[in-house]
């Protein structure tokens, strides 16, 4: 079949290709949001979605997307040309990092008022949202800033991060007497923090010392395996961990539709302070937990921020950029990698204690590999290496699905979150609020100067 | 400085060696990269290692800096008190700690960091702040930060890059990147500095600057320099002595002028007549 030259050129042009992709995306969304097929007539859904006039609406939406993308592309070219002009004329000056105190105070005030804002703005669902703030945002922010040390600062891919969270939770359960094996003496949950952190650090060093000699991908596999091992041990070592029943659950037996409690296992107690006349007990109310988390998180954030801009933080950056050059600068790369790994692990263990004491009960499936991946997604989405970015990324990705849960069917929800991530990685691979160093690295990789791999192995010996 | 006869073992007449390489052999599978290499460097001298491509110069550097572990032989560093330490078997970071710093043939700066940060990472090789100190900002951390900043600026001044300290390393001109890499290496507080083709890819003006810098760090800081270089004009003008490698063997050693006219050296560079 002969195609006129003009049409052929049009079909090959980039604009047309992009338009076709946008239409394709429109059709996929059409099918996704439309009627579903059934087992007996698997194509019925497709036929109903594509044969309906609604298809035109989605094609129109595709066209709008195309227009937007084209305009965005043009604008980006203009900006790039201008940057080129500036960078060839003047030297690329980098101002030393400075802290924007007004913005910082604003964010802190907002964080302090968050539970009250929920009270005022969403009175009907305030308990739910306060729980989201604690269970989904607070604890995961802690997890994410810990993983950010490993992935963002040191450039190590850790897929078994949640294993340390599990270790923290189980160590806390042990020392508060909630496990089948009893400790020599019972501790207040607060005193289990050092125990859990120590155990997580030890586990991190034991895992890290032999495996951190490996480069990028291999390390990811080993940590993935470690995560699985911890979960399986928790499930199968029944005499120690309580096995698949988990910690703190009631053991019931159902006879003739009547369930009776056979054995009541102790839950991990809530936090409490009885010190120098101060008495406070954390109970089922979420708000006190929120403030406890806020205080701890602020402390950890300040500490990690100082760490990032210290000798240790710079050593990690050096390792991430060029391991050979870092060694030549006297940096013991293995030691610093283990250090990053252990600091991340300890944060994870710390969060595990909070989780255990807040919930009181938990079982092994919670500590799944998916949860490790989820935390990694928060870090990448927010902006690897940027503490602020990681916090914002976690908050956005945790709150968004919860706020959309009535608009979309539950089983489809994560398709949209996934699509958001894909779009994000295409158009803003450095994350929501990237760290300056990281975005410079990505920029250099695009120019072909630096190591292109943001996360894996840096350059090898010449 | 006494002149060594071209064919004699070069280690014989060095009185106060800072670096002694003895019978070092390095093989990769069946390929012998260095065969029985023996050389010694006098404290305070600028020793140039020359030779055709593939002669084993960079392999020698990688052995001295701990990147490669030779199968045979020993490499010892002798400090001013006469204390000798073996290099073989130590990690590159430990070798740097002993006082041997290096630059790379194809510049390896931390490209996304500023010139200042690059040098500061070098300076921090001699500091002790750990993660706890950094997170709590203990007094020692504060003191070391201040000292590190001051030293880094001093070194940037020394190599003439003070005015560009806030620029991103990858944005600097080639010659400036070479000098920045030297500043970073000086930051680690070396007794011996290994320069791997510092003049490669630089223009004539930058070469002159570089020559001045090598002389200056040798004279003012008292640092011994082991230099690999292809640019003969630079070698002849800065080197105290020259060692010639070919096919992984030392074929000549001596004063620059002697080596230049040595028939074996000429043959190695130009090939023998059939």
Describe the fold and architecture.
The complex is a heterodimer of chains A (462) and B (274). Chain A contains 18 helices and 4 strands. With 462 residues, chain A is mainly alpha-helical. Residues 88-96 and 450-462 of chain A have low confidence and may be disordered. In chain A, the strands form 2 sheets. In chain A, strands 1-2 form a two-stranded antiparallel sheet. Chain A has a two-stranded antiparallel sheet with strand order 3-4. In chain A, helix 7 (162-175) packs parallel to helix 9 (216-236), helix 7 (162-175) crosses helix 14 and helix 15 (369-382) crosses helix 16 (387-403). Chain A has helices at 5-12, 14-33, 44-50, 54-89, 101-121, 126-153, 162-175, 189-211, 216-236, 238-241, 286-308, 311-321, 323-328, 333-359, 369-382, 387-403, 413-427, 436-447; strands at residues 250-255, 258-264, 272-275, 278-281. Helices cover 66% and strands 5% of the residues of chain A. Chain A folds into 2 domains: 9-32 and 47-86; 104-447, ABC transporter involved in vitamin B12 uptake, BtuC. Chain B has 274 residues and is an alpha/beta fold. Chain B has 2 domains: 7-99 and 190-274, 3-Layer(aba) Sandwich (Rossmann fold); 113-189, no CATH class. Helix content of chain B is 37%, strand content 23%. Chain B contains 10 helices and 10 strands. Chain B has a 6-stranded mixed sheet, with helices on both faces. In chain B, strands 2-1-4-5 form a 4-stranded antiparallel sheet, covered by helices on one side. In chain B, strand 4 (72-78) and strand 5 (84-86) form a beta hairpin. In chain B, helix 6 (174-187) runs parallel beside helix 7. At the A-B interface, helix 11, helix 12, helix 13, helix 14 and helix 18 of A face helix 2, helix 3, helix 4, helix 5 and helix 6 of B.
């Amino acid at each position: 079949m002969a195609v006129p030259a003009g049409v052929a050129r049009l079909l090959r042009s980039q604009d047309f290709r992009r338009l076709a992709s946008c239409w394709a995306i429109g059709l996929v969304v059409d099918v996704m949001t439309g009627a579903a097929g059934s087992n007996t007539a698997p194509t019925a859904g497709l036929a109903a979605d594509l044969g309906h006039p609604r298809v035109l609406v989605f094609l129109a939406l595709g066209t709008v997307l195309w227009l937007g993308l084209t305009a965005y592309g043009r604008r980006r070219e203009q900006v790039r040309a201008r940057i080129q002009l500036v960078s060839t004329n003047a030297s690329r000056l980098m101002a030393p990092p400075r802290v924007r105190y007004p913005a910082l105070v604003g964010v802190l005030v907002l964080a302090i008022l968050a539970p009250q804002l929920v009270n005022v703005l969403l009175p009907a669902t305030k308990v739910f949202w306060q729980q989201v703030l604690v269970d989904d945002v607070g604890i995961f922010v802690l997890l994410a800033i810990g993983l950010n040390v490993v992935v963002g600062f040191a450039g190590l891919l850790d897929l078994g991060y949640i294993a340390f969270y599990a270790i923290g939770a189980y160590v806390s359960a042990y020392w508060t007497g909630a496990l089948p094996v009893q400790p020599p003496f019972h501790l207040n949950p607060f005193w289990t923090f050092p125990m859990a952190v120590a155990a997580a650090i030890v586990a991190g060093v034991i895992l890290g010392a032999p495996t951190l000699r490996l480069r990028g991908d291999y390390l990811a596999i080993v940590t993935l395996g470690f995560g699985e091992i911890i979960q399986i041990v928790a499930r199968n070592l029944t005499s120690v961990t309580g096995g698949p029943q988990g910690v703190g659950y009631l053991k019931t037996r159902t006879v003739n539709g009547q369930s009776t409690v056979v054995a009541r296992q102790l839950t991990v107690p809530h936090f409490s302070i009885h010190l120098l006349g101060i008495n406070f007990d954390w109970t089922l109310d979420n708000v006190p937990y929120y403030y406890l988390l806020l205080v701890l998180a602020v402390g950890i954030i300040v500490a990690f921020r100082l760490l990032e801009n210290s000798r240790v933080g710079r050593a990690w950056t050096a390792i991430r950029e060029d391991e050979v050059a870092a060694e030549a600068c006297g940096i013991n790369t293995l030691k610093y990698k283990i250090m990053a790994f252990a600091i991340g692990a300890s944060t994870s263990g710390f969060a595990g204690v909070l989780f255990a004491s807040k919930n009181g009960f938990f079982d092994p499936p919670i500590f799944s590999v998916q949860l490790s991946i989820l935390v990694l997604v928060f870090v990448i989405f927010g902006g690897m290496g940027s503490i602020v970015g990681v916090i914002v990324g976690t908050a956005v990705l945790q709150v968004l699905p919860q706020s959309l849960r009535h608009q979309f069917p539950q089983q489809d929800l994560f398709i949209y979150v996934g699509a958001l991530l894909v779009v994000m990685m295409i158009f803003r691979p450095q994350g929501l609020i990237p760290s300056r160093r990281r975005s410079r690295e990505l920029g250099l990789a695009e120019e072909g100067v630096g190591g292109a791999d943001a996360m894996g192995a840096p350059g090898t010996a010449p | 400085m006494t002149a060594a006869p071209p064919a004699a073992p070069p280690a014989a007449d060095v009185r106060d060696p800072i670096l002694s390489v003895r019978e070092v052999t390095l093989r990769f599978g069946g390929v012998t990269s260095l065969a029985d290499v023996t050389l010694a460097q006098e404290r305070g001298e600028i020793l140039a290692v020359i030779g055709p491509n593939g002669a084993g110069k960079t392999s020698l550097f990688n052995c001295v800096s701990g990147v490669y572990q030779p199968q045979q032989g020993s490499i010892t560093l002798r400090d001013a008190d006469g204390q000798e330490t073996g290099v073989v078997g130590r990690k590159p970071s430990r070798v740097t700690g002993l006082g041997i710093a290096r630059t790379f043939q194809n510049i390896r700066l931390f490209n996304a960091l500023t010139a200042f940060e690059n040098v500061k990472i070098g300076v921090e090789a001699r500091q002790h702040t750990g993660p706890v100190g950094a997170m709590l900002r203990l007094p020692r951390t504060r003191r070391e930060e201040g000292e590190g900043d001051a030293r880094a600026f001093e070194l940037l001044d020394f190599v003439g890059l003070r005015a560009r300290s806030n620029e991103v390393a990858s944005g600097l001109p080639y010659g400036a990147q070479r000098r920045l890499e030297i500043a970073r290496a000086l930051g680690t507080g070396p007794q011996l500095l290994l320069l791997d083709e510092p003049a490669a890819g630089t223009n004539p003006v930058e070469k002159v600057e570089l020559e001045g810098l090598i002389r200056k760090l040798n004279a003012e800081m008292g640092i011994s320099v082991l230099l690999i270089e292809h640019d003969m004009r630079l070698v002849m003008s800065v080197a105290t002595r020259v060692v010639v490698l070919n096919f992984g063997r030392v074929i000549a050693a001596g004063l620059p002028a002697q080596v230049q006219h040595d028939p074996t050296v000429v043959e190695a560079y130009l090939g023998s007549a059939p």
